[in-house]
Amino acid sequence: MIQIDPVIALALPGGPEMIIILVIVLLLFGGTKIPQLMKGIGKGVGEFQSGLRHGKKMLDEAMDDAAKDSDKEERKPSLDDKKDTS
């Protein structure tokens, strides 16, 4: 089970605090700007996730290339191997 420090738990907003925050956002941005704001946040999150997928793909490709290079080096006979066979 995850243990949360009591000091951190007190700093996290609960239900009533979230309602107050949402009311303040509504007052600041108005009802017409909130959908545009959420659309922008959604696009940002989508781009972030796309970047994460791209980064993971690049990392996987680099690891595969490194594994292939490592296999090639293991298969090459060394000079010591050639001396042992004569």
Question: Can you describe this structure?
Answer:
This protein is mainly alpha-helical and 86 residues long. It is 86% helix and 0% strand. The protein contains 3 helices and no strands. The longest helix is centred in the middle third of the chain and has 61 residues. The N and C termini lie far apart (63 Å). The model has no long low-confidence stretch (mean pLDDT 81).
Mind sketching the topology for me?
Layout: H1 6-11, H2 15-75, H3 79-85
Supply the helix-strand structural class.
Answer: mainly alpha
Query: What's the total helix number?
Result: 3
> How helical, in percent, are the residues?
over 70%
How many strand units? 0
Return residue spans where pLDDT drops below 50 for at least 5 consecutive residues: none
Biggest sheet descriptor:
none
Radius of gyration: 28 Å
Shape: elongated
Beta-strand residue percentage:
under 5%
N- to C-terminal distance: 63 Å
Mean pLDDT: 81
Order of helices and strands: HHH
Core attributes:
single chain; 86 residues; mainly alpha; 3 helices; 0% strand; elongated
Quick structural summary:
The chain has 86 residues and is mostly helical.
